[in-house]
């Protein structure tokens, strides 16, 4: 069982009449005991990914499992 298992994750936001994709990932798997770093430019989706993993971001598409739970 993976600690984190993500497939085809997409997070989009609407601002007024416009929508934009804040995060789009194909796959990410982190095994228990592995070290993981998250780096990237401002606006690249780092905080958005952490919000999804923490359960704070509800509006997303794809598959996210934490320790076997969706």
UniProtKB/TrEMBL annotation:
ABC transporter domain segment(s): 28-68
Keyword annotations of the record: ATP-binding, Nucleotide-binding, Transport
GO MF annotations, alphabetized: ATP binding; ATP hydrolysis activity
InterPro entries with a match to the protein in the record: ABC_transporter-like_ATP-bd, ABC_transporter_ATP-bind, P-loop_NTPase
Tagged with keyword Kinase: no
Family annotation (SUPFAM superfamilies): P-loop containing nucleoside triphosphate hydrolases
Family label: Belongs to the ABC transporter superfamily.
Protein's recorded name: ATP-binding cassette domain-containing protein
Organism: Pseudomonas syringae pv. tagetis
């Amino acid at each position: 069982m993976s600690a984190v298992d993500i497939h085809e994750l997409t997070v989009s936001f609407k601002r007024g009449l416009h929508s934009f994709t804040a995060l789009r990932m194909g796959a990410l798997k982190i095994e228990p005991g592995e070290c993981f770093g998250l780096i990237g430019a401002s606006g690249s989706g780092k905080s958005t990914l952490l919000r999804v993993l923490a359960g704070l971001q509800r509006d997303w598409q794809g598959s996210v499992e934490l320790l076997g739970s969706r």
